[in-house]
Specification:
36% of the residues lie in helices and 19% in strands. It contains 22 helices and 33 strands.
């Protein structure tokens, strides 16, 4: 997951391949709470691992549930038949509406001394209609801040079950879902009726709730969309085990991607579009109907058990007018698809957008305008006009701590003008799809010239590895420690039983071409195994010198280094990155420090590892090595002509990182 302050997405040209989606957030949090309300143990498979599910799991642990997590399988030992906690408990619910609303209802019906709080945005999301309905039932709930909004205090109820419980349905379907999940706890000796006041929005989410309640032994009688009757004697029963479908809302981004992006002709039949694993047209989630809207706009979609395949059909896409009440979350993706259409697209009946993680009508309009689009908006609708070629603008997309805003606007990088897009706070996608950007990059492709490279070259012990790895972490870019490649190659060759002599040159070169090496910070991983200490030894350096003089090995490692230029970008450090390997890199830095300063750093490093060292000898060795490196016949150590020089003799690593970031930002101007 990207934890950077921003993520710059280079212009992307196409996409093809397979994406496996994470579990549904809506199903995951419902299943967790339902399992907690049962007696006995429930094994939940394919659970979404995200911010929202972690919030719910933390709350269940506080209540005393048994929670055992092994990857995406979670075992819940429920509270059914056991006494609920009597001590006061404060729950932090983050910005997770799918946790906050149902948990509030369950706690209020069972009673206790509970406080529910969240992030500031959660305290702006209305909950008054749910509280009013629960108070009609006899629940005791107090507002601790603004009337109608969290935070809340829940106390012991005096339940009154002799009349229907009214709840508004036109703000959020989560209020009705919360009541449907909580009221079986009170329907021991009589039926309980819920009456919906006003038009019920987001009906497909209620269908998810009813479907899951049935799996847990609660057969709710639905009378149209106005009345729901929970039978007397209702009792939660564990299904034993349950599988969570992949998230249909998350599927919308890759359905849209298949509709927008050209395939990859170089992959033949495998490069014709996007295949989504984990959800199909028969999903119980209403947002799967996004595929119908995408098909109206021109996408070619086929489906099978638990999979979808999408290819670009009509191009440009077709502008549409659509009532989106049935796909409120997924409909946001249509707003970005609309930028690629042949005429305006109007999305109606989306008032619920205004009470989500942010006011999504305002957000989608504001960020679309940054890209250059004309947008009109109303209380419950938005119209987006397409952006023709030549009109797209670079934009830094503000994401409002809203995962769906971030994921939607990542699709703007496939624009015909090949302008990049910046996504601010990309880690917000962790709410539902922590690895979203990794999944996007796994299927997207673009010309190598579009993938940015920053080169940091310099002499031995200048600190270029530390600097490069930290800048890479700040930008979310891949990292290449080119100096370590020769050491890793020598290590891998010896592990394979080869000598480091000319006789095995071809075999070593063949091994080097596909070396499974990865750099994470200052760690070096070979086929997933940490070999950092093994290759950093004095013997490792001597072995690297032996293979570095073999021409075929050098050529193979040039190819390997080029392969590190992957989305979204690369930080490469070494001695010839800017002069030989990536001569067209948009930013080249030549990092240096005096030999005396470098010797002092190396001395401290060796002493900290328990080695004895002499500063004068180290200084002399570094000066001699500099002379050798600068006089090499192949790729001598020297700054590239357009390199910016950075003498870090008197700079902290933090100051050096800041300077490189300033230089990079000056070349990445976003409107």
């Amino acid at each position: 997951m990207f934890s950077t302050a921003f993520l710059d997405l280079p212009a992307l040209q196409g996409a093809s391949g397979t994406v496996t989606l994470p579990g549904s957030k809506s199903i995951s949090n419902r299943v967790l709470l339902l399992s907690a309300l049962c007696q006995g143990t429930t094994v939940v498979h394919d659970l979404l691992d995200s911010d929202d599910t972690r919030v719910m799991l933390a709350a269940l642990r506080q209540l005393g549930c048994g929670v055992e997590v092994k990857g995406t399988t979670v075992t819940i030992t429920g509270l059914g038949g056991r006494a609920w906690p009597t001590e006061a408990i404060e729950f932090f619910m983050g910005n997770a509406g799918t946790a906050m609303r149902p948990l509030t209802a369950a706690l209020a019906v069972k009673g206790g001394d509970f406080t529910l709080k969240g992030v500031p945005r959660m305290h702006e999301r209305p909950i008054g209609d749910l509280v009013d309905a629960l108070r009609e039932l006899g629940c005791a709930i107090d507002y601790l801040g603004n009337e109608g909004f969290p935070p809340l205090r829940v106390r012991q109820p005096t339940l009154q079950l002799d009349k229907p419980i009214p709840v508004r349905g036109d703000v959020s379907s989560q209020f009705l879902t919360a009541l449907l999940m909580a009221l079986p706890l009170a329907a021991q000796d009589r039926a309980i009726t819920i009456e919906v006041v006003g038009e019920l929005i987001s009906k497909p989410y209620i269908e998810i709730t009813l479907n899951l309640l049935a799996r847990y032994g609660i057969a709710v009688e639905r009378q149209g969309w106005e009345r729901f009757v929970i039978p007397a004697g209702s009792r939660y029963q564990s299904p034993g085990s349950i599988h969570v479908e992949a998230d249909a809302s998350s599927a919308s981004y890759f359905i849209a991607l298949g509709a927008i992006a050209a395939g990859d002709p170089s992959k033949g039949s495998q490069g014709k579009g996007i295949r989504i694993q984990g959800v199909g047209a028969d999903s119980i989630q209403g947002d799967i109907r996004f595929m119908d809207a995408a098909a109206q706009m021109g996408a070619m979609i086929t489906s099978g058990p638990n999979w979808l395949e999408i290819q670009r059909g009509a191009w440009p896409l077709k502008g549409i007018t659509l009532d989106c009440n049935h796909i409120p979350d997924a409909a946001m993706t249509l707003a970005v698809m609309a930028l690629y259409a042949d005429g305006p697209t109007t999305l109606r009946n989306i008032a619920s957008w205004r009470v989500k993680e942010t006011d999504r009508i305002v957000a989608m309009a504001a960020e679309s305008r940054k890209l250059g689009a004309t947008v009109e908006e109303g209380p419950d609708w938005i119209t987006i006009h397409p952006l023709p070629a030549g009109k797209w603008q670079r934009a830094s997309i503000h994401t409002y701590d809203d995962h769906r805003v971030a994921m939607c606007f990542s699709l703007a990088t496939f624009n015909p003008d090949q302008v990049p897009v910046r996504i601010e706070d990309p880690k917000c996608v962790a709410k539902t799809f922590p690895d979203y950007f990794e999944a996007l990059f796994s299927v997207a492709h673009t010309a190598a010239t579009n993938i940015p490279v920053i080169c940091i070259d310099g002499p031995t012990a200048s600190g270029k590895g530390t600097l490069a790895s930290r800048v890479a972490a700040q930008l979310g870019y891949h990292y290449l420690d080119s100096g370590a490649l020769y050491r890793v190659t020598a290590y891998a060759a010896l592990q394979a039983g080869l000598t480091l002599e000319a006789a095995d040159e071809a075999a070593i070169a063949n091994l080097a071409r596909s070396l499974p090496v990865r750099f994470e910070g200052e760690q070096v991983l070979l086929d997933g195994v940490d070999v950092t200490d093994a290759i950093r030894s004095e013997q490792g350096g001597m072995n690297a010198s032996k293979v570095s003089v073999l021409p075929a090995v050098r050529d193979a490692l040039v190819d390997l280094q080029h392969s590190f230029q992957r989305l979204p970008g690369l930080l490469a450090d070494g001695r010839d990155m800017g002069t030989v390997i990536f001569p067209n890199a948009p930013l080249k830095v030549f990092l240096t420090a005096s030999a005396a300063q470098r010797a002092e750093r190396r001395h401290k490093q060796l002493i900290s590892k328990g080695f004895s060292a002499n500063i004068d000898a180290l200084c002399a060795d570094l000066e001699a090595r500099d002379a050798r490196d600068m006089s090499r016949s192949v790729a001598p150590l020297r700054p590239a002509q357009d390199a910016l020089q950075l003498d870090n003799s008197q700079l902290s690593i933090e100051a050096s990182v800041e300077q490189v970031m300033v230089w990079w930002q000056s070349r990445q101007v976003f409107g």
